[in-house]
Design goal:
With about 100 residues, this protein is mainly alpha-helical. It is built from 8 helices and no strands.
């Protein structure tokens, strides 16, 4: 399903891409959460801005999905900066920087 969304986006099938995004959020929520770092990286790599609000909501509610992920170190620099610039993280700044330093 996610691969179809990449293809639809690359072929500029905007309506199909939006429908696939909605389907992913509605029926594949657990997959999106379990592959969160991959999905969040892909948002910026493939310009999936339509999935960004969903992911930002997850980050706002549960920062551990990013910071305690074994894939945290695979985040692209610009993705990490995007997260660090958020004002709604429910963590102390020192705790965030400890993860960044790792």
């Amino acid at each position: 399903m996610y691969e179809l969304m990449i293809v639809a986006d690359e072929l500029e099938f905007g309506e199909l891409s939006v429908k696939l995004k909605n389907h992913l959020i509605e029926s594949k929520d657990s997959w999106l959460r379990s592959h969160f770092t991959f999905v969040y990286n892909s948002i910026f790599k493939h310009k999936f801005k339509n999935l960004e609000p969903f992911c930002n909501n997850i980050i706002a509610k549960n920062q551990n999905v990013i910071f305690k992920s074994v894939e945290f170190t695979s985040l692209h620099e610009f993705v990490l900066l995007e997260i660090l610039e958020r004002d709604d993280l429910q963590m102390q700044e020192s705790e965030i920087w400890n993860y960044v330093i790792k």
